[in-house]
Amino acid sequence: MSNQPPDRPHGRRPVRRVVSLVPSLTEAVAVSAPGLLVGATDWCTRPAGLDVRRIGGTKNPDVAAITALAPDLVIANEEENRAPDLAALRAAGLTVLVTEVRSLPQAFGELRRVLVDGCGLDRPGWLDAAEAAWREVPQTAPGRLRAVVPIWRRPWMVLGSDTFAGDLLSRFGVDNHYAGHPERYPRVPLDELLQAGADLVVLPDEPYRFTAEDGPEAFPGLPAALVDGRYLTWYGPSLAEAPAELARALRAAVG
């Protein structure tokens, strides 16, 4: 496949320069069309060695720096990026594509919208591989398990309702205990987490970096699954490997 995207149909200006404000989408675009990205956030760590202009964080992008790059398209996410920043980019005359990803099917749909509809690329092969990988997901245990899924400590915060990570876990037979909470990422005191009656605790290494020495000790007697946060929370090329990697981590915890 050419590194340059094709001209867009129906007289629309071809997309030659893209700025990404979302780590997952940065990786998706960079892998699919090397050279298309001209700017990304400081948190965009994939693919390794990505050489583009850094334009600040996901919550505090440098609007002037982005505008100076003259992108044909800025890609963003309704959860990771702030509405005032996106409004400022639009006010500067830039085209901003905002994604919403709260489930696996939605992730696949939004990836196609960004790459094919937004960037004018051919559908990448890794996206087909990712969809195929998720068609048959191995269950973690004979019956369904209930988990608490912290994403931060000091204070403790967990996955709540309507989250992409929660949807992924459910496909392995692991139900998020706080899936019915009115908030998406509620703060929950540790003593309440310990009394939740969960079967296991799932500890990703981002946004908080839980490790074998930092996290499991707070949940004595409860199996702890340490998972790579990229496989649990990123929607991009890692989705092709995520089913096998998450299954391995969950099975290691519950035996």
Set out the fold topology:
Blueprint: E1 18-20, H1 23-32, E2 37-40, E3 53-54, H2 63-68, E4 73-77, H3 83-91, E5 96-99, H4 104-118, H5 125-133, E6 145-148, E7 150-152, E8 157-158, H6 164-170, E9 174-176, H7 190-194, E10 200-204, E11 224-227, H8 229-233, H9 242-254
Parallel strand pairs: 1-2, 1-4, 2-3, 4-5, 6-9, 6-10, 10-11
Antiparallel strand pairs: 7-8
E-strand count: 11
Structural class: alpha/beta
Give the averaged pLDDT, no decimals: 93
Profile the largest sheet. 5 strands, parallel
| Range of strand content | 15-25%
| Shape by Cα distribution | globular
List keywords for this structure.
255 residues, globular, 5-stranded parallel sheet, alpha/beta, disordered N terminus
Question: How would you describe the overall organization of this protein?
Answer:
This protein has 255 residues and is an alpha/beta fold. Helix content is 31%, strand content 15%. The chain has helices at 23-32, 63-68, 83-91, 104-118, 125-133, 164-170, 190-194, 229-233, 242-254, and strands at residues 18-20, 37-40, 53-54, 73-77, 96-99, 145-148, 150-152, 157-158, 174-176, 200-204, 224-227.
